[in-house]
Design a protein that fits this description.
With 298 residues, the protein is an all-alpha fold. The chain has one domain. 78% of the residues lie in helices and 0% in strands. Helix 1 (2-26) crosses helix 9 (186-197) and helix 2 packs antiparallel against helix 8. The two termini are 14 Å apart. Keywords: Cell membrane, Membrane, Transmembrane, Transmembrane helix, Transport. It is found in: Membrane. It is a multi-pass membrane protein. It comes from Halomonas cupida.
């Protein structure tokens, strides 16, 4: 059990640690790196996975719905706490809703459950991203038009991949292989970028960051159990949802807060201390998943 957990988590934290170490000495332009990843490599991986006819996406509908409910429900669960503690909702609530399904979720699910988990990881990632760039942006900037969402390479790749899959359009094996190879670049790059971002942690607001590190995975896990029961999710899909529910806040929350000038330093504390908190949360969640869910997967 311990060996399985270490085999899953050590590559995640070693690659992130390499990013932190490199960033400390070199201070790379991480924004350009993230732009390249989010506009090229990640869309290629998303399209390749969705367009692959061997991935029965119709089987992942309830998983996608469950992921969306966790995102929305987490916001509803933490809202009373935010009001009670008199925190700024626009600063605190989005990081509790929109988790790190890209930088950490995709690599973690693949390392934990193998390549067979890639479709589930992508489906959950897309569900979270669609909500983040629609509802999430509206929460910070109510007057931003939603049509901008459809210009994003991520969304274009998602829609194109869904059309190819649903219409059963055959693609050449060499094309899918090339897309998978280029898209595969994004997984270690997401973790490396996360490590570089760790250098921006501001411990001046550590109490709020610590509160977020507890509430983000807790709210997701509270919602995951009834969803798995109600939708009767089994095996790999149930395991993937448990991991998705426990993920820390997405690094993207900081970038969006910076863009819309919504207390970006406070959001950085929530995001980065939350990701440090996953060092404690993820081993526990993975241990429970391997003990109680993985037997039905394998």
């Amino acid at each position: 059990m311990i060996a399985k957990i270490l085999a899953t988590l050590l590559p995640v934290f070693l690659i992130s640690g390499a990013g932190t170490l490199y960033g400390y000495f070199r201070r790379p332009d991480i924004r350009s790196l993230n732009t390249l990843n989010m506009e090229l490599f990640v869309p290629m991986l998303v399209f390749a996975v969705l367009a692959d006819g061997e991935a029965p996406l119709a089987d992942y509908g309830l998983l996608a719905l469950s992921g969306a409910i966790i995102v929305l429900g987490s916001g509803l669960l933490v809202w009373p706490v935010v009001k009670w503690l008199r925190l700024e909702p626009k600063t605190f609530v989005p990081p509790m809703m929109f988790n790190n399904s890209g930088n950490m979720g995709i690599p973690l699910l693949i390392l934990a459950f193998g390549e067979q988990a890639l479709p589930a990881a992508i489906v959950l990632f897309i569900a979270e991203m669609l909500l983040h760039f629609s509802l999430g942006v509206k929460m910070l900037s109510p007057h931003t038009p939603l049509w901008r969402l459809f210009r994003m390479p991520m969304m274009l790749a998602s829609f194109a991949g869904l059309i190819v899959n649903i219409c059963n359009i055959p693609l050449p094996a060499w094309l899918l292989e090339a897309l998978h190879m280029l898209g595969g670049v994004c997984i270690p790059l997401l973790l490396f970028a996360l490590g570089v971002r760790m250098l921006d942690i501001d411990f001046g607001d550590w109490k709020t960051g610590l509160l977020g590190a507890v509430l983000c995975p807790l709210s997701g896990l509270v919602l995951a159990w009834p969803l798995i029961v109600v939708f009767d999710l089994q095996g790999l899909q149930a395991a993937s949802l448990w991991v998705f529910a426990a993920l820390p806040p997405a690094v993207l929350n900081y970038l969006v807060a910076e863009q819309y000038r919504q207390q970006p330093q406070s959001v950085a504390s929530l995001v980065l201390i939350g990701n440090l908190g996953s060092l404690l949360v993820m081993p526990v969640v993975l241990g429970l998943v391997f003990a109680h869910v993985m037997p039905s997967v394998g």
